[in-house]
Structures are given as structure tokens and as C-alpha cells.
Amino acid sequence: MIYSLTLETALLLTGLILIIAHAFALWKPAEAKVWLRAFPRSAVAGFVLLGTAAVWSWILIRTIDLGEFSNWRTRILIFIPIATYLSWRYVDEFLAVRALGMVVLLLAEVLLESAWMRPENGRLLLVGLAYIWIALFWIGMPYTLRDQIAWLTKNEGRWKSAALVGIVYGALLICLRLTLHRSA
Questions:
Q1: What is the pTM of this model?
Q2: Which of 166, 149, 179, 163 is nearest to 37 (CA)?
Q3: Are 68 and 17 a contacting pair, CB within 8 Å?
Q4: Which residues are within 8 A (CB) of 6 and not within 5 positions of it... i.e. 6 or more apart?
């Protein structure tokens, strides 16, 4: 792989990101809700996330072993920028959501790779989170994120509960990181 993120680092970074994002949602709920409601149709977020997914995919295809598909490498490397441009130009409906789905899939691969072949049961919390991200299916059905945001922001109890769950889950990942012992 082009990156070698250890399970320990993946647990720590994921936990910190979850805590920071959900603490902000708890601390500034009005601003977070406004931003979340506007996100699915945000042209700027769509452009940034699509660019991120394109660059990440291009670097990944450029550097990984494609095995029996290695003869396709050049064609795929040419296709990625073309597909990115065509997506940006013609798929403006929920582009931010679709691009977020692409980035989440790439990120899930990093998290799954960090937990690969590790014997610790704590890795399953990270793996489970990655599979939940994959299952959200925002690329093919982007309106689902809009609906999820609408449901979540509809009442204060859901919002606070989701923020607290995110903080607790992040703290749990960090605690796992601190107590994880790798057998030699």
C-alpha cells in the first residue's frame, strides 16, 4: 500500500475526529445544523471532495499492485481525470454527497487495511464503523444523506443523542488505542 497506517494510529485519529466533530455539533448546534442542511447541494464542498477523491484515486491506482489488471493502469489513470471533469460538469445534483461517498469509501479502505490480520478484538469497532460508512450508499442514492440530515436535525433530542454517541464512540476508540497491546 502507499500508506501504512497502523491500527493504533487509525484508532487514535478516528477517535479524535469523531470527538471534535461531534463536540462541535453539541457546542454550536445552530451553526452545525445550518451547515449540514446546506451541505448536500454545496457546489464548493462538491468540488473540493470530488477533487480529493480524484487525486487520492489517481495516486492509489498509480502506486498499488493491480495484479492481473496491471495492463489497465494507464487507461484507468487517463480515465480518472476525465470522469472527474465529467462528474463535476454534468452531475451537479448532490455532487457534494456523491463525492463524500467516494472519499468515505477510500477512507474505509484505509481503516480496513489498518485492521487487516490484527488479532485484537478492539479492531472490530473500527472495522464496524468502516462498514457502516460503506453501507450508507451515498454515491448511488445521494438523497439518502439529505433525508438522514433532515431526520437528525428535526428535533433537539435526536441531535444531542447523535452528538453524544459520536463523542462516546470516539472516546471508546481512543481508550482502545491506549489499551491496545500488540503481541510480538
A1: 0.85
A2: 149
A3: no
A4: 114
Q: Which amino acid makes up residue 39?
A: F
- For 32, phi then psi, to 5°, come to -65, -40
Three-point CA angle 170, 172, 173, nearest 5°: 65
For residue range 144-165, list pLDDT tens digits in order: 999 999 999 999 999 999 999 9
Kindly give, in sequence order, each residue whose CB lies less than 8 Å from that of residue 159, ignoring residues fewer than 6 positions away.
Answer: 25, 29, 33, 152, 153
Cell, residue 89: 460538469
Closest C-alpha among 76, 55, 73, 77 to residue 65: 73
Cα distances from 49 to residues 43, 101, 131, in angstroms, run: 10, 9, 20
Closest alpha carbon to 18 in 113, 111, 115: 111
How far apart are the C-alpha atoms of 53 and 80, rounded to whole Å?
10
